[in-house]
Amino acid sequence: MHSDQKVDLKINIIGPMGTGKTSLLNQYVHNFFQNDYRNTLGAHILTKTIQLENKTIKMQIWDTGGQERFRSLVSSFYKGSDGCFLVFDVTDKESFLSLETWRADFMDKIQSPVTNFPIIILGNKIDLEDRQVSQDLAVSWCQEKKILYFEVSAKDNINVDLAFETLAKEALVHVPHGGREACACVRRRLKMVPCLRGEELPWKLRRIPVLVCLRSSA
């Protein structure tokens, strides 16, 4: 299908050290996984172009370091973001408990005028057995914050593509893109964003471990 619009999206992927942010990014962009990544210092940027909703979407994805001593440096990379992944490790409860701190810092730094700025929480490493954060706990937190949540595995490539494409769709709906086409269309779509629950998902999505808590359009 011919694409009549090109859109650039800046996506940040943030969260504590060791949660698998770089692994998720490389699985999505390069389709490979390795265990021995060094800690990211500052930011690592990769791009991927996809076709979505009759648009050519160029995603510039900023993988930022999770070390506390680099927090002020990392937060300088948030400006201009169109969407954000906030990643925790389901086998590390401390990483889950730090989500609110990371989320608050991100929102403070971007100072976005957009209501319901696109943030998706990713619970990574569901392929491991020594889980410390239950699905119920993660879902409950995300429901309280009205944030979309996916359980993912960078190693087994579970829900990785789906999570990235979902964030791109959210960004197209909620984030204005200057003078680029379809501002009126975006306003119309804002009124049409559904509040989906798991049982309302198409059957193909229900077959994989996706936990959904979409923001209400109200």
Quaternary structure: single chain
Q: Structural class, please?
A: alpha/beta
CATH superfamily: P-loop containing nucleotide triphosphate hydrolases
Can you list the strand order of the major beta sheet? 2-3-1-4-5-6
Main β sheet profile: 6 strands, mixed
Helix proportion: 25-40%
Order of helices and strands: EHEEHEHHEHEHHH
The CATH class is identified as Alpha Beta
Low-confidence stretches: 178-218
The total tally of domains equals 1
Instruction: Please count the helical segments.
Output: 8
Which geometry do the CA atoms define?
globular
* Rg, alpha carbons: 17 Å
Intertermini distance: 33 Å
The CATH topology annotation reads as Rossmann fold
Total strand segments: 6
- The CATH architecture classification is 3-Layer(aba) Sandwich
Could you report the average pLDDT, rounded to the nearest whole number?
Answer: 77
Please report which band the strand proportion falls in: under 5%, 5-15%, 15-25%, 25-35%, 35-45% or over 45%. Answer: 15-25%
